[in-house]
Amino acid sequence: MTLFIRPYSSFKKKVSLLTILLLAQFTFSQNTPITISGESRTSSDFFKDLEDKSSYSFFYHDDWIEDLEIGRDFENTSISEILKTVLSNTQLNFYILEEEKRVFLLQNTVVYDELPPSFYQIEDSTGNTAVVENRGNLPPPIFYNQEVSQTAQRLPLIRIGKADQQNLRPTYTLDGRIVNAVSGEPIPDLAIRAKGSGRVTVTNEQGEYEMELPVGYNVISTSAMGIRDSEREVIMYNDGSLNLQLQESLEQLQEVVVEADAVSNVEEAVSGSEEITSEESKDIPLVLGERNILEVAKALPGISSAGEGATGLNVRGGKTDQNLVLLDDAVIYNPTHFFGIFQALNPFTTEKVNIYKGAPPVEFGGRLSSVLDIETKNGDTEKISGEGSIGPVTGNLALEIPIKEDTSSLIVGARGAYADWILKALDEESLNNSEASFFDGIVKYHHKFSENSEIRGTAYYSKDNFSITSDSLYNYSNRLGSVRWAHKLSEKSTGVLTASNSNYNFGIDYEDEGNSNFELDYTINESELRYKLNTRLNEVHTLDYGLSAKYYAVEPGSVEPKGSNSNVEPISIDREQALEGALFIGDEFKVSDKLLFNVGARYAFYAAMGEATQNTYQEGAPRSESTVQDTVSYDSGEFIKTYGGPEARVSARYLFTPDFSVKASFNNSYQFIHTLSNNTTVSPIDTWKLSDLNIKPQKGYQATLGFFKNFKENMYELSLEGYYKRMDDVLDFKTGADLLLNENVETEVLQGEGKAYGVEFLLKKNRGDLNGWLSYTYSRSKYRFDGETSEERINNGEFFPSNFDKPHDLSVIANYKFTRRYSVSANFVYQTGRPITYPVGTFRFNNADYVTFSDRNKFRIPDYYRLDLGINIEGNHKKNKLAHSFITIQVYNVLGRNNPYSVFFVTEDGEVKALQSSIFGVPIPSITYNFKF
User: Fold this and answer.
1) pLDDT digits (tens, 9 = 90+) for 663-720
2) 619 and 561 part of one domain
3) I need a labelling partner for 893 at 20 to 30 A (CA). Which of 345, 410, 492, 700 fits?
4) Residue 886 burial (10 A CB sphere; 0-12, 13-18, 19+)
5) Where are the beta strands (DSSP E) in 164-215?
6) pLDDT tens per residue, range 466-501
């Protein structure tokens, strides 16, 4: 017999291993009854008395029984039953040598008095060696002698569970909760890996995790952005819990790379997802030195925009309105300032953004292309801190204010702009006398009631004012608020209740020297309530399920005369209202360590509501005022038209090796809200239109297949992913469509089909003096509108490129650190020129000259490329100083490339001439001072 127990230097009595080996063969009996008192006695006194009365010698470490509570008396009870009772709620086992009258207390483990099953091997009928059946059904011996990596924080060894010969399994369950050692906040999305086994899990929003580990010795490692990597030796004897408090990373992050850790890149079932943190964007050279997470997103494969300075993102061939952009669970309709050049998000209050290009989490819906889930930081609960910057265009400031230590905090951020000089510097003479300004502010309160309950509330407001002519002042604003309550219902279930409201408004204030002064106003407002639950049924199934409900209210536009002398007639378009709801359920189903499924289903429901009037049109005729068949009135709250149907979310991952996997996904979705725009690119004064009797919801279907590989302990990440997307009932508009303040806007709308497909390549280097990434996308995006009449067809009903179809898109981001304080950065972008419609001829009719145009989007503007360079200078790293500084010196468009934003045509002296408009046609230098205290 061998006693497998970690040696201790201070045993109460010495024991000879040889003696144990010689005497293990004897059977024993411990049935001699003993009467002993355990009430109000220390454990050491109890075991001394038990030793005297039983005549057995006990061997143990004093620390093992230091906190042991006996709490009862025993009468005529055998020594084995006494020990079973006393040690039942501890991690201690015992072993009795009857012949020697010796009792050994054992921490977690058991004594093996026969050789393990793997020792016995026989030859089968084929001559192959095989292991015989388990003799005695004993667990294998446990050894540990591996070394922990010196690059990670070394933590003490810990034993989990208590060995039980009646409950022997090859694996046991380890669960627990992981929090920040300083703030006490849970650490979500923390990767936990069992080294050498390929077993991986990730903490949820409450910092909780659960994973299966092999019996015996394991080394588990933890990693997350901003948290110091750690490794811990764990011995699994049975099921058990391990709660950890981890330290923040002591080295200030200076990586330029958008780092998706190995878990999300290789092991997770979900594909087409990216995470960007605000901290990671600080070294990337962008226009005028402004940190911009949305601009960084455009450097990732599958994400682009229609042009420099264009508002909105085009994700995998989708329109800009097909993206669901959330700020702390509330929709933000226009997350940009200054015609899309700056983001409307304070970089110092923004924590991160998760981008889902493929199958999004099951709780999200209502858009076809992507979800951008932006999360704000929680404030510091220990001390007041802040961060800010002063640049050539904007000034930013964010403060973190503790309200109650370790319990609640407030974060406040504000930005202001002084951007008029930029308009005068742009390569556009008509903008020389223009003006622009913007500001935004955000407040977030976070309160932790207990380990099982916390609440957060966010309020945000932004506003832009700009004048590009001498007689019109434009403005648009975002206002939103959200409250989120996360609570633990049981050991296996958590719930999150979210309420949010969003409001987007734009207006035009027109004044001239005549009597045509007016004020125009447009507003869309939505409110949502969502409840999501997460339940870990077992080690195989984890469920996400819940429901959501949303209410839309749209004021499509109104015009009021301005001033007593205005002769403008008031106009007001009827209000639009609608309800949107969904039931959803998802299951992360672990078939094996290699095969993982993430499957989900939603049922989306939508109802357009009165009070309203709707036109019906003659069947088979183009919609126009002359083909109106009837006008139907609907009372307040009455359903005008309902839509809906099931949506699938299916993702699968097969892990060939711990660092190489293949993933596939399929999803479909409905979109019940649309933008109305006949511009080539998105404008801040584009309006949103709800589906109704005459405008159907858009429907989308997407399938993906991808390969993901990591190298050199995740220093390099490589991915290759292809996708195919089909869209039905997408919107476009007739040439010359009149969309603003149109009571019958459906007469200007065409609905057709679209398709998009592409291949995305991404190579990242996450660590080292030189880091960054290279991304390349080959993609196509096409639409077809083939109505029953020629008026409802575009390009004779054939597929044609969309306004944002760019087959080739290449981005290179690089950062080289000379020292901890000095680094240089570069950003290079190349894109195929976007499609455009050109005039191809002229003709004369009734003594007037007219231009004939090509098929829509038949030609392209010149290709786009740009190089940006930056120098990053950190302040000294002295601990005791008022503030830590960071200076960026950048040059945007170093090559002075006059990239065309658009090409337009004018007629002069009977000739049609093409003119090119650019946003930044010269190098734009900037210097920004950042500080943190």
Assistant:
1) 999 999 999 999 887 655 556 677 889 999 999 999 999 999 999 998 887 888 999 9
2) yes
3) 345
4) buried
5) 171-180, 191-194, 199-202, 208-214
6) 776 666 788 889 999 999 999 999 888 999 999 999
| Residue 854: CB atoms within 10 Å | 14
Pairing verdict, β 835-836 and 822-831: unpaired
**Longest alpha-carbon distance in the chain:** 126
Dihedral sign for Cα 65, 68, 74, 78, please: negative
Residues 333 and 186 in one domain: no
Query: 238 and 290 in one domain?
Result: no
Res 26: pLDDT: 38
Co-location of 165 and 217 in the same domain: yes
Please indicate, yes or no, whether residues 687 and 823 belong to a single structural domain of this protein.
yes
Beta strands in 785-855 (DSSP E): 800-801, 808-817, 822-831, 835-836, 839-845, 848-853
CA distances from 18 to 14, 23, 96, 114, 540 (A): 12, 9, 16, 15, 45
Domain containing 234 — which CATH number?
2.60.40.1120
Kindly state whether residue 530 falls inside one of the protein's structural domains. Answer: yes
Contact in structure between 307 and 902 (CB atoms under 8 Å): yes
Tokens 């049922």 locate to 603
Q: What is the pLDDT of residues 441-458, one digit of tens each?
A: 999 999 999 888 999 999
Helix (H, G, I), strand (E, B) or coil at 749: strand
The CA–CA distances, whole Å, from 138 to 89, 239, 460 equal 22, 17, 62
Are 295 and 309 contacting, i.e. CB atoms less than 8 angstroms apart? Answer: no
Between the two ends of the chain, the Cα-to-Cα distance in Å is 63
User: Do β-strands 541-561 and 571-572 pair in parallel, antiparallel, or remain unpaired?
Assistant: antiparallel
Burial track 829-852 (b if 16+ CB lie within 10 A, e otherwise): bebbbbbbbbeeeeeeeeeeeeee
157 and 305 share a domain? no
DSSP code at position 44: H
SS3 content of the chain, % helix, strand, coil (to 5): 10, 55, 40
Query: Could you give the CA distance from residue 678 to residue 586 in angstroms, rounded to a whole number?
Result: 39
